[in-house]
Hints:
This protein is mostly beta strands. It has eleven domains: about 1-65, no CATH class; about 85-145, no CATH class; about 155-230, Sandwich (Immunoglobulin-like), CATH 2.60.40; about 240-315, Sandwich (Immunoglobulin-like), CATH 2.60.40; about 330-400, Immunoglobulin-like, CATH 2.60.40; about 410-470 and about 480-490, Immunoglobulin-like; about 510-570; about 580-660, Immunoglobulin-like (Sandwich); and more. About 0% of the residues lie in helices and about 50% in strands. The strands form 21 sheets. Strands 8-14-13-10-11 form a five-stranded mixed beta sheet, with no helix packed on it. Strands 35, 37, 40, 41 and 42 form a five-stranded mixed beta sheet that branches. A hairpin with a 5-residue loop joins strand 54 (about 615-620) and strand 55 (about 625-630). The radius of gyration is 73 Å and the shape is flat.
Amino acid sequence: MSTYRATGxxxxxxxxxxxxxxxxxxxxxxxxQVNWTKAGTGTLVAKGVSSYGCLTDSVAQSVTVxxxxxxxVTGTLSTCQGGSVSLAVAGxxxxxxxxxxxxxxxxxxxxxxxxxxxxxxxxxxxxxMVLGCTASQQATVTVLPLPVANVGLPTxxxxxxxxxxxxxxxxxxxxxxxxxxxxxxxxxxxxxTLTLTNTTGAPITTTYTLTVTNTATGCVGTGTVAVxxxxxxxxxxxxxxxxxxxxxxxxxxxxxxxxTYQWTPATNLSSAxxxxxxxxxxxxxxxxxxxxxxxxxxxxxxxxSKDSVLITINPRPAxxxxxxxxxxxxxxxxxxxxxxxxxxxxxxxxxTGGTIASGQGSANITVNWGTAGAGAVRAVATNAVGCQSDxxxxxxxxxxxxxxxxxxxxxxxxxxxxxxxxxxxxANGSSYSWQLSGTAQGTLVNNLNTTSIRFTTAGLAKLVVxxxxxxxxxxxxxxxxxxxxxVKPSPLTTLTIQGPARFCVNSGPQTYTLPGASGSxxxxxxxxxxxxxxxxxxxxxxSTAVGTYTLTARETNxxxxxxxxxxKQFTVDPRPGALxxxxxxFVxxxxxxxxxxxxxxxxxxxxxxxxTGGTIASGQGSATITVSFPAxxxxxxxxxxxxxxxxxxxxxxxxxxxxxDNAQAPQLTxxxxxxxxxxxxxxxxxxxxxxxxxxxxxxxxRDAGSTGTFAQVGTVAATAxxxxxxxxxxAQTAYEYSLALTNGCGDVLTAPVSHxxxxxxxxxxPGPGGRNQGSTHLTWTAYRGFTVAGYRLYQQLxxxxxxxxxxxxxxxxxxxVSNTMQASSGLxxxxxxxxxxxxxxxxxxxxxxxxxCVDFANKTAFYNIITPNGDGQNDxxxxxxxxxxxxxxxxxFNRWGREVYNAxxxxxxxxxxxxxxxxxxxxxxxxxxLPDGTATKGWVEVVK
Length: 944
């Protein structure tokens, strides 16, 4: 960039123009700056401009622009933070100067080594060249950040064998490497698990280094963490032990210096934090309890260890009950005592006032008692695990006045039950006498200290027992207290369950009753299953399945006494199954007496029939009936039947509908070929009373005159009045049609009269020329089915409308139609004919024949001699078939070329040439034209 100034002149404004460069900033003013864009010669022009915008003067100056030198800087233009880069320079003139923008400069030939702390742009300038120009180039060195090696906390502490996690979550694009790898789950994971062991008694510290590499830049970062592993703790819960309920044991082992202890659970321990707590066994159940106790031992450095021990806490046996005499004679021996329902495995006995004769250690002992006084029998139970119960005692009185125990046994009984058993305590050497008194009577059967009673009456009974003992010390006697026994009356034993022995399924609920006493309750069972009852009555549901059932009932009276079990069997009978009635579903005039039968009827059943619209002639009650139906009925009749089994069970009624089919034979009234289609024949018919007949009318056809079998060509509803046979070929064949109807009873009703179609045939005979223009010979077959009054002949010319052209009598079956009969309307090339047979009815029936057509060429022909002498022979110019070409024109010229006649629609009759009597003889020439442009030329001679 160069600066230029304009001096001198008086213009207030200087405007500059440059060639070969661009202005830097404004191009007006006394000074401008130019950046020359190419080497060579440039031009700078300064123009003075007055205050009115007018040019005052100008000056131009040529500027020589020397080429600037080009420098190339090479080297790595990126480095990781803390790294150096070497920049080499090529081109320009050494020495080079490198500046970094902050004032730091290096000079020399290069290469230059730079160590940027951040991304820096360096400018390198060459020495002076031509015209003092220098070359410069910039290079930007990007400083890439180092990846952060996140090791987590710089120091970590753990216990031997306890895993910890180092590092942090991974960063995408980074790779990781830990050193050393000892104890690491992975040495390449960003956050590996570290597990170290320490078998010494002192802490061990290890430093781990994490190296992180950014795979995109290649920059590497590191971090360290110091991990201290403390030695582990030792925990000892002691050996497994067993203890009885309410006994104690000691757990654990001696305390270690600096250790703390925690036991779980703390239940029943003397201390949960002692190294050796005392456990008191507690077991209120009857089975051993196993309890695990866990001790957590923690060192002074915080490392812990656990140990556990299983303690079995055995139950103590419950105190049992001693059974035996509480009152004995002095000096009596061999008195037995026992444990009631012993539960322990061993018993330790103690006797006061006597001695144990036998049984020590077992559940039964015998005692020899001493002199009179107070005695006792005590026992302590020992179970299978060696735990002992509390002592339990039975006091014993030793005296000659015995206190015989009150009898034991039921105190409230039902009179009809029994026998009932009663007893008192048995003492060795004693005898017993039983007495029964009171309002209730019974029979006793005694056996030492027991008796059985079968009561014969109800009431209150009193039972006492007298005991006598006679040992060596003297006679002892005792009478027991009275046992009062209430003897309640029992229910009657002569009842029966009341209810039906059998009933029909779904015939309604059935009730059964046991007529017991007022206030009693009852239990009913049906086939062993309890069912509900109300005051001795049960209801068997109507839906109970078919089968045989056993019903039992037992009464319990208000006193709680149960009567005998009563039984009744009953049967649920099936109803007859679904019936099927076999017989006609239609009644027809030909058969008014019909038979109906139940299919596969059961021989032991009866059948009730009901008929509406008819009368049962015979068979009521049996499986087959005969029904008479009235003639001419129009309403449907029904026949229904209900079966009743031999057990009186009625089945569901079943009914069928009998439809009166009064349809009469079809009446065919007409067969006519469709006027527009020779392949279709329309039949007109009627069926009387067709409403209920189930089948359609069958349409039958055969060739007329044939004696062969009719073939079915279609069906049509009996209610219809017409049918179109679309399978016919009436142009080739005359057909005979008949109708048949099969009614609901299977009777075939055939139409009494068949009808035939008329087959018309046409034969064209072209005319030889002249006045004879040809003819059509027609023949047709006679119509059969109605009385023919005659035939009408219709003609269609060239697709025009049909016109009646003749009538014929009933015996005429042929005709000739001459083309000369046609009016001169220009038609007759195609001629179609139809014969219509008609009846003599007041409204005649008409039957079309097929349409038969012929074609005529109808060429024109010219005669070349006429003799106009008025004799009616060749008096005029005749052109064959000219009347069939309307719109024609005819011009006649004499031999000199003069036109002597000109006419349109020449027709040989009203428009004709040659009839003029003044016509001159000679040869004439004609020109005949048709509307389509066809022209015929020729000559004709007039001869007179």
